Amino acid sequence: IDKITIGPGWSKQFSDCGLEETYWNDGETTHSSDKLVLPSDKPITFTKVSDKVAIQWGDGDHIGEVSIEDPEHATIGRDDEIIVGLKVSVKAQDSDKRFKLTYTYEGGSGSVDGEAGASVSFNMPSKATSLSISYTDPVLKAVYDGNENVKTLTFYYDSEPHTGDNIKVYDNLKTDAEDDDDWAYDENRGNINKVIINDSMKQYTGFKSTAYMCSNMDKAADIEGFENLNTTNVENMRGMFYRYGKGSKDTPSSLTKVPNLTGFITTNVKNMYGMFQEYGQYSNNALDDLDMSAFKTDNVETDDLFLDMPRLNRIKIGYGWEDQFSDCGLEYTYWKNIADGHVYKSDQIVFPEKEGDTITYERAKKYTITWDENSNVEYIRVTDDKDYYESGVSVTESVVVSVAAVSGYTPPEEDKYVIHYVTEDGTDHTAESSTYPKFNMPSQNTRIYFEPNTAYLKSLTKSYNKSLNNTQLKATNKLDVKKDSATKPTPFKKEAIIKK
């Protein structure tokens, strides 16, 4: 028997009817006699198949595993013979890559695209067949996923299609050093909540420019996987994180940290203009641990590198960093070397002196200086800053503060002005000078006053008592006291006026 037609009422496999270990083709596919697809609504004619042909592949064809469906996923070796029409399944050697399987036979060929780690299948031709696999070349791309509450932009270097609803693939990224990224203002930028650098990016070395790579993502939070970005050949990092996680006054950013740049190679970089400009500008959190120790800034444009980054709190620099923070957009700020506590203005930063050395600077904190009407303080002057005549001034820790006494104040000792500065812990410090005493602002809120002049107060009391009956009483220090016309004034006690 080489042909059998059965109808919808037939329910037995041919193997149950004495036709074990035979193969039958239903016009489309071939199955063993115990795996036939039986008719459901109309008759099917099965033709017996007994012809076998060889299947083969070479060592360099990237063939992993070959199997046939009948018998159940039986593994096939190279040069084995297979029943014509049987379904053949093939896997690639490298399960991490997409691939294309090509099967070739006399007079024809076919191909099937396969996903990473999956198998592909084809029906065995009627002639000897050769197999080969070629891996699909990976492509640099950024994939926007707008499906979840947290909308992501993920950078890949792979051969995956990344298809689906609300998925948009940007696979024409410009990586030339002279080109700014023309998708920096894409409509989806403002919706992105998170950026991910997939680990496949470690293999991509084609970047010459990362300009505006993560720019204009005002709502974005922390970046994941930045250590996967290979910057070996990058020349242009202009605006790379411009406005990233900026937020707004009404809707602050949830950004909590800066990207991990410890693995960045900047040997070839020439342009870092505005690289972090406005990064996390309205974040609720201080941005610590910006590690720039791998960055070399000689012959690099760094203007506005950190412009409008008020939340930036800590920077680590290494040997080869040669630009003052003031040149990078941090004018008129102060930074403390956390190793020795010394505070520097942003145009006086000290750099590491030899290879391997690093220095971590933390934004210096501000504390309040106060004084009252009895302190004899006229105004204070902060180093390289203006004069302040009203109490409650915020002053950066460690900077020099000079204090001027009120007009007419005579120090207890001639040419010896003594200023007291009392910190929150109750410690009363003093500084003295023949003109304007100075001190370094403590790292605590501080109250100041000049040392009381008791000798002057005693002379003032004596002068007042002596002149009590005059219509207008004259005293030293230009103090005018008018006598009440109706009531004789009551003399002050000496102790009271001294206290006053």
Write up what this structure looks like.
- The strands form eight sheets. Strands 8-5-13-10-11 form a five-stranded mixed β-sheet, with no helix packed on it. It has a five-stranded mixed β-sheet with strand order 16-14-15-17-18, with no helix packed on it.
- It is built from two helices and 34 strands.
- It has helices spanning 454-466, 494-499; strands at 3-6, 23-25, 30-32, 44-49, 52-56, 63-68, 74-75, 81-83, 87-92, 99-105, 108-114, 119-123, 129-135, 139-145, 152-158, 167-170, 194-197, 223-224, 290-292, 314-318, 334-337, 343-345, 358-363, 366-370, 377-382, 387-388, 393-396, 400-405, 417-423, 428-433, 438-440, 446-450, 472-475, 479-482.
- Mean pLDDT is 87; it is low at 469-490.
- With 500 residues, the protein is mostly beta strands.
Provide a short characterization of the protein structure:
This protein is mainly beta. The chain has two helices and 34 strands. About 4% of the residues have low confidence.
Main sheet? 5 strands, mixed
- Classification by helices and strands: mainly beta
The coarse overall form would be rod-shaped
State the total count of DSSP E strands. 34
Mean pLDDT: 87
Rg: 42 Å
Put simply, the count of helices is 2
- Report the sheet-strand fraction: 25-35%
Poorly predicted spans: 469-490
- The helicity comes to under 10%
Termini gap? 128 Å
| Strand order, largest beta sheet | 8-5-13-10-11
